[in-house]
Amino acid sequence: MSESDQTQTQTESLRHRVENWMVGQMPIIQMHGGESVVRKADPETGEVVVELGGACAGCGISNLTAENIKSDLIMDFDDVEDVRVKVPSSGDHGNSTVEGGRGGEIQYGGGDTGHF
């Protein structure tokens, strides 16, 4: 297996593991009308980016949810060192924000807003 193939497999593996972990969190998030998608999971740097959408946009406790996701991912995965959780402060609510909560295409802005 080439180095690039191995890196791609590691990336998919970390992404898959983080996605599965997020699925376990979804009943709580969905109960409040929220959704999530893993935007990045880099095993080389240990960086993970998760985007919350749906009712999480503008929710008063979305920052608490984001902090819990950050700390739990770092505690639960040895290869995760840095977690960013993007939560739009306003915008569309519902499935259009992250396409049903799994693997959506719509993203909130290209840059880091510094929200978290």
From TrEMBL:
Record-annotated NIF system FeS cluster assembly NifU C-terminal domain positions: 27-83
A Pfam match: NifU
Taxonomic superkingdom: Archaea
InterPro entries given in the database record: FSCA_dom_sf (IPR034904), NIF_FeS_clus_asmbl_NifU_C (IPR001075)
Transmembrane stretches, start-end: none
MF-aspect GO terms: iron ion binding; iron-sulfur cluster binding
Gene3D superfamilies: Fe-S cluster assembly (FSCA) (3.30.300.130)
Skewed-composition ranges (Gly residues): 100-116
GO biological processes: iron-sulfur cluster assembly
Region (Disordered): 86-116
Entry protein name: Thioredoxin-like proteins and domain protein
Organism name: Haloquadratum walsbyi J07HQW2
